Amino acid sequence: MITLYGVYRSRASRPLWLLGETGTPFTHVPVIQFGRLADAQAEDAPFHTASPAFLAVNPQGQIPAMVEETLVLTESMAITLYIARRHGGDLGPADDAETALMTQWALFAVTAIEAPAIEILYTMADGGDKTAEGQAAIAINAEKLRGPLRRLQGHLDTQPWLVGDRFTVADLNTAECLRYAEGHPTLLSEFPTVQAWLARCQARPAFQAMWAARLAEPA
């Protein structure tokens, strides 16, 4: 059985959403990031990313991590691609070409989308959109996203999902990286096909269940 380490308010949201999609039985160990613990909690928290018990699973001290039998994975995209191949049915690849395409979109998501999208998220969360410096940072990162979003738009103008004619792990991984930029007031509306695709991804019951669990966690 899969054991997944990590809280919903982390990149563990990706495999947690996917496990909800597949209905795969798993054990969830809600390891929290050490930096999110208050000083008073740090000594008493039994399992966090700096605790010896978790470092024995992932010496890098990052979540998520996954263990199934003797296999240990410590990168969210590797975890989702593995779960999709092994347990995902139609959410995973049907052949070698789809395996390559799903890997391509995962790499695209983490190299072209995630970093500038997270910068937008963090800047807006810190109130940076109310300062000239923050507005400049948001504008720079939005511009970094326009090229990847144009590519997504062109692809999704020709087919409803990223790979084949069905929702797959490629859509899930890319949607979760793009989600960080949703707070930008106008960026996604520049790319209506992408915006509609993201809405379809997030309307899925498994995403809604994951999101409700995330909101129920302490911020």
Q: How would you characterize this protein structure?
A:
Helix 1 packs parallel to helix 4, helix 1 crosses helix 9 (205-216) and helix 5 (96-125) packs antiparallel against helix 6. The protein has 2 domains: 2-91, 3-Layer(aba) Sandwich (Glutaredoxin), CATH 3.40.30; 96-204, Glutathione S-transferase Yfyf (Class Pi), Chain A, domain 2 (Up-down Bundle), CATH 1.20.1050. The radius of gyration is 18 Å and the shape is globular. It has a 4-stranded mixed beta sheet. 54% of the residues lie in helices and 7% in strands. With 219 residues, the chain is an alpha+beta fold. The protein has helices at 13-22, 39-42, 52-55, 76-87, 96-125, 132-156, 169-178, 192-202, 205-216, and strands spanning 2-5, 26-29, 65-68, 71-73.
Mean pLDDT: 94
Head-to-tail CA distance between termini: 29 Å
Nearest-angstrom radius of gyration?
18 Å
Q: Portion of residues in helices?
A: 40-55%
Instruction: Give the low-pLDDT segments.
Output: none
Spatial order of strands in the largest sheet? 2-1-3-4
Residue fraction in strands: 5-15%
DSSP summary, beta strand count = 4
What's the CATH first level of the largest domain?
Mainly Alpha
Order of helical and strand elements: EHEHHEEHHHHHH
- Principal-axes geometry comes out as globular
**Any idea of the CATH topology of the largest domain?**
Glutathione S-transferase Yfyf (Class Pi), Chain A, domain 2
- How many strands, which pairing sense, and closed or not: the largest β-sheet? 4 strands, mixed
* Total number of domains: 2
Pairing-aware structural class of the strands and helices?
Answer: alpha+beta
